[in-house]
Design goal:
Elements lengths: L5 E9 L7 E8 L4 E6 L1 H15 L20 H20 L9 H7 L3 H4 L9 H10 L6 H4 L2 H27 L3 H35 L9 H39 L3 H8 L24 H4 L3 H71 L1
Antiparallel strand pairs: 1-2, 2-3
Amino acid sequence: MAPTVEIAIPNTSLSPTSPPHTVYHITLRLPLRSFTVSKRYSDFSAFHADLITQTSAPPPVPLPSKAWFSNTVSNESFREDRRRGLEEYLQAINESSDGRWRNSSAWRAFLNLPTAAVAASGGAKNNTSTRLHAAITDPGSASNSQITDPTLWLDYHRDMKSHLHDARLQLSRRDQETVPSKQHESSAQAKSSLVRAGTMITNLEEGLKGLSNRGSQSTSTLGEGELRRRKDLLTNARKEKDGLEDLLQAMANKTRLDSAVAAMSDKDKETLFGKIDGPSNGRRTPARSGRVLGKETERTRELDNQGVLQLQKQTMQDQDQSVEELMKIILRQRELGQAIHEELEVHNELLRLADEDTDRLKAKVDVGKKRIGRIS
């Protein structure tokens, strides 16, 4: 059976610390996403020891040995040899027919692997990764049985959020483009991501209903609090999708308006935008409109009322997120301050005790000196 995780170490880098050390960038490709984990040789050495301790057997390929008279920082050839050796070491474990090393907690912790990525070994036909891949690649055919698994539901929701993120990026790119063909391409990609996200939100809602109705028949029943939390996630996701669709529609309306203005004759433009008072002053009498623009920015000047409203909502949402992040930082600083205060109190108490002991010792020394004086 082919491994569900592809592992490679394509490159290395030197850390900015002093003294520097070599960092090995491990690339992992799962059925649905890819990510990179950075480790140094000492991490590999500790992982190797934990792996042998947990499995009571050495891995199929030995770990490249430590060199005492050369280092990977200054020797590029040695660094490349060690990179290949570490890559073969991980790939041998990943592709071995014996799965005891892959099933260990040391393996998952070292590579930051989710449980679903390693639970698929053994040839199970309905494993989580396979079902999730089928649900995401063809969301229109995803039935309740495909996404009523609690873990599968969260992975499916994570992929849906990535489509919303892609749509937001495409809309931002479309707003920055000046070439009509590029704008159309970005709009089409954003629309595709939004349609896919909408279908996935519907499937998630149906799956959540299935989770709510399974009750005692489910082997992993969700509590009422978790069900409410997931409902809130879907509500926020649908609001985000609707807001992005409104923004896309506002951009499309603006494009159509610009095209219509470009195709108008000079006389029609004077009627719409006003005419110049005279050839000397060059002032233009603006045409009446239902919206008073005033002192607007370049972004709001190009949007209609619906677009400005959506932009304001988005700006307020970004500000709320910034405030939440600032609140987390402030709370963390407060916790650090309290911890420092408690530590200072402990140190002050220790200093006070030391002063008392010093006073007692001084008193005893004085008594001893007096007795020595009497004897002498």
